[in-house]
Amino acid sequence: MDEAKPSETQTAGVKIHTPEEIAERVGRITIKTLSALIRSRGLETTTLGYSPPSSKGGPPRRLWGMTDAQLECLLALRKRRGLGPNRLE
Asked: pTM of the prediction?
């Protein structure tokens, strides 16, 4: 069976966008900046699972994405606040 690419992940007919896709669409920001923006604004994301723990120890990382509706909320927030691709605050 073919594995789905992360950008093509679908859950019950809902497309899940990867953090890389979201960062590009929001304005070519880094994933770190995108994560900070999502946390600071209290926006929702969809948890897809967790990565295996690192061989060096530490907790597993959360794998996440956003549905079309969640992404639209992020884009609307940036548009409403007049935040262009290069401004976050």
From this structure: 0.72
